[in-house]
User: What shape does this take?
Amino acid sequence: MRDWTVLEEVWTVIEDRAEHPSAESYVSSVLTHRKGIDKSLEKVGEEAVEFILAAKNQVPERTVSEAADLLFHFLVALRASGTDVADVLDELAARRK
Assistant: This one.
């Protein structure tokens, strides 16, 4: 199994950018966008479509790249919605029982 700590690291960065916005930060720009949460949700939708097309067209390198984009933007959208990723992980763990 691969090391999943990278997801924790990404979440930590997203949390930091949310708590300490920076004009140079992409995450901060999404979280503080004038559209509010809609901006992060739009990005999830856009990346989901790109992932679906890459997977459907069986382009492995694009599928991996778009999956990473989707996962990243999903985490940003979770933060924008005020949802802690730990709660999502707890829900997944509960479903395994």
Remarks:
- The chain has five helices and no strands.
- The CA atoms of residues 89 and 95 lie 10 Å apart.
- Residues 60-80 form the longest helix (21 residues).
- The helical segments are 5-19, 26-31, 37-56, 60-80, 85-95.
